[in-house]
Amino acid sequence: MNQPYSGHWSDAHIHRLPVRVYYEDTDFTGVVYYANYLKFLERGRTDALRCAGVSHAEILTLDPPLGFAVRKINLDYLKPARIDDALTIETRFKTVKGARLVISQRVMCAAEVLVTAEVEAACIDLEGRPRRLPRTMLDQLQRYVTG
User: Fold this and answer.
1) Is residue 147 a contact partner of residue 99, using CB atoms and an 8 Å limit?
2) What is the domain count for the chain?
3) Half-sphere exposure of residue 1: CA atoms within 13 angstroms, side-chain side
4) What is the pLDDT of residues 105-144, one digit of tens each?
């Protein structure tokens, strides 16, 4: 069943996903716990893929079934997010080639950058072996690459 997407792609090939900071996302001081940024960033990448036409549920039905795994991530925490903040997760596909995706992301609060991330993800089969992206998927994602 298709659900409306909460994120969207801009003309500049930037996907934006709104995220609200809830009590469960914070530590005892009301500041977002550092590991929860990984969850926010994952939601941004997943929604960006879905909005670009690549659904995790659909790629599991391919022969062979495929998925994505984060191979490498580099985070820079610049400023904290706090309880009730309205964040935007920005996602850009920098490279989509073979079995590899390089993705640039930012966590924003209004016009302030709170966190930056460079992510390398690999397309894998269910045994964890790298697999090339299917041509149709590659073509769909190439439309959103910013380089």
Assistant:
1) no
2) 1
3) 1
4) 999 999 999 999 999 999 999 999 999 999 999 999 999 9
Give me the CATH number covering residue 77.
3.10.129.10
- Three-class DSSP category at 34: coil
DSSP secondary structure, 20-88, as one string = E--GGGB-TTSBBPTTHHHHHHHHHHHHHHHHTT--HHHHTTSSS-EEEEEEEEEEEE-S--BTT-EEE
pTM to 2 decimal places: 0.92
DSSP strand pairing (8-9 vs 15-20): antiparallel
- Whether the Cβ atoms of residue 83 and residue 26 lie closer than 8 Å to each other: yes
Range of the domain at 69: 9-142
Q: Contact at 8 Å (CB) between 144 and 9?
A: yes
For the annotated catalytic residues, the residue numbers are 27
Decide if 1 is inside a domain: no
